[in-house]
Amino acid sequence: MALPRFLRRPIDLATATAAVGAGVQGREAAFLAVLDQLVFGVGKSPLRRLLEWAGCSPGDLRGLVASEGIEGTLSKLRAAGVFVTADELRGRTPLRRSGLELALTPADFDNPRITGGVAGSTSGSTGRSVPVRYDWPFLAAEAAEELLLLESHGLRDAPLAFWMPGPPGIAGLHNLLVHSKLGRPPQRWFSTSPPPGRGEGLAFWIDRGWRTGRRLLPRLGPAPEWVPAERAEEIARWLAAAPQPAVLKCFASSALRVASAAVAAGLDLSRSVVFAGGEPLTLARSEFLSRSGIRAFARYAATETGFIAGACPHGEDRGEMHLYSDRLAVIGPEPEGPAAPFAFTVLSLSAPKVLLNVELGDHGKLRRHSCDCALGRAGLAWHLRDVHSPAKIAAEGVKLGEIDFARLVEEAARDLGGNPDDLQIRLGADSEAGGASRITVVLAPSSPIDPEALQRRLRELLPKLPGGALASRLWFEGGALTIERRPLRLGPGQKMRRIVREGRDDAS
Description:
Layout: H1 2-8, H2 13-25, H3 27-39, H4 46-53, H5 58-79, H6 86-89, E1 95-97, E2 100-102, E3 118-121, E4 131-134, H7 136-152, E5 160-163, H8 170-181, E6 188-191, H9 202-216, E7 225-226, H10 232-241, E8 247-251, H11 252-265, E9 273-277, H12 283-291, E10 295-302, E11 306-311, E12 321-323, E13 328-331, E14 343-346, E15 358-359, E16 363-368, H13 374-377, E17 382-388, E18 392-395, E19 398-401, H14 402-415, E20 423-430, E21 436-443, H15 451-461, H16 468-477, E22 481-485, E23 499-501
Parallel strand pairs: 5-6, 5-8, 6-7, 8-9, 9-10, 20-23, 21-22
Antiparallel strand pairs: 1-2, 3-4, 10-11, 11-12, 12-17, 13-14, 14-15, 16-17, 18-19, 20-21
Helix pairs in contact: 2-7, 3-5, 7-8, 10-11, 11-12, 14-15, 15-16
């Protein structure tokens, strides 16, 4: 079987360092191999059609890479129209360029070389679920990066737990396989989702098959155990009782639930480390986690790409991350140009999706500099930070940036002594007012924050934003912005949906 073969030889630190270093040194050759074999070598590839439309031949690209390097080549391609937006990738809109129109689906970007491995899909928290398949060599490459991340933080031998969805969800399985390849599966797998029942069809049989396989392969560690959000204290107590600094991998909002439970129970988590992904690790979230003693660091991953980046221990804050540039190339906006999302390109023949300047919708900052942590010493010199998904909130003719407004709401929660994830922003339309836009800040029933105090604080803070003074007056006076106390709506895997668009699957 492929899985036992995958687990048979764990990766050690020397092997991991050499593998990542070789990947960094061989980036240009790997990029050209992907273009030759997975783009120009695949007749139905939409990326091939796009390159041909732009007049780029394999020889042209080899010349560009020799003179401009990978990032320079990708920047020139993007300027020439060779890129794919997040909506085009996910089939929401056709890819349209002058004289070219392609109706796409996420499957059009599947790596045709991959037929085995582990299958899964995105959570669907940003719309339609996208199927994906991870191959064993790809998972081994991620395991090498993960070991260097742990080594960078002095946590290579630390006890580990997950608080992630169990099967058939892909996030937990993905992380489990990576850590099992290191010979260090989690000691506990706290699942945010209950085991599927017989009435759930394929999901039930996937879960049952996985549990049977786990019993036959002890190297995979313990079975997932369902721990819903309201029992976060169980995870906090496990961290507090660990005989040495322990690590928890979870979504950022789940980390806040653990911190809240620890504070309420009087637990000291000052030796605990959380690697938080799935949602931005904002400043407000980091400050709240610090109250319980937790040291929280950002991770960045996407189902289409796998692991993207891991936190640098020497960064300006705990949100600065090393890009896994042995497998990926990323370009951002031009220094003097308008804001633009990151565009991702894979440098691996075993990547789950074939991506060339493909946007996932995330913006942020990108820079290159040396670092003396284990990740930096392996050659991972590109750094990402401030990763977010910007959009606009519009009501009463006033527009504010979603990310700016969300941060302001978090600041208000902090000022009033609450958890940043006690609040949620819901965007919808008032059917009784001709479909006028409505913004509702929802307070969790258990939050200690008083709704009237929150309204006063938001009125005080809104003028800090560009256009916020007008928004403060019009949104409150016109009834476009209201405060309500009711249960929050969580996304797949108990992710906190900071912004929910009513009537849609979108959340950010």
